[in-house]
Amino acid sequence: MKELVEVIAKALVEHPEEVVVTQTERGNDIRIELKVADSDMGKVIGRRGRIAKAIRSVVKAASSRTAKKVIGDIIE
């Protein structure tokens, strides 16, 4: 999942070298945190959060094979 989020985020931003994705697992939960440059935050979130919602949908679809719940966060 981490690699998927990283590829999507790097394709969206102007400063791909500042994209940091961390993945932590606790029990049945997987938390994926995405950090980007301040100037790229709007590009990752999109108007009314549409891009962020789309990223979460893709990750949820990719994780449907596992029995774990995936939680995605965008960190400022």
Overview of this protein structure:
- The chain has helices at residues 2-12, 41-45, 50-62, and strands at 20-26, 29-35, 69-75.
- It is globular.
- The longest helix is centred in the C-terminal third of the chain and has 13 residues, at 50-62.
- The chain has a 3-stranded mixed beta sheet, covered by helices on one side.
- By secondary structure, it is of the alpha+beta class.
- It has one domain: GMP Synthetase, Chain A, domain 3.
- It has 3 helices and 3 strands, in the order αββααβ.
Outline the fold blueprint.
Blueprint: H1 2-12, E1 20-26, E2 29-35, H2 41-45, H3 50-62, E3 69-75
Parallel strand pairs: 2-3
Antiparallel strand pairs: 1-2
Task: Provide tags for this entry.
single chain, 76 residues, alpha+beta, GMP Synthetase, Chain A, domain 3, 3-stranded mixed sheet, 3 helices, 38% helix
Order of helices and strands: HEEHHE
CATH topology, by name, is GMP Synthetase, Chain A, domain 3
Multimeric state: single chain
* Major sheet: 3 strands, mixed
**Structural class label:** alpha+beta
Summed up, what is this model?
The protein is 38% helix and 28% strand. A hairpin with a 2-residue loop joins strand 1 and strand 2. With 76 residues, it is of the alpha+beta class.
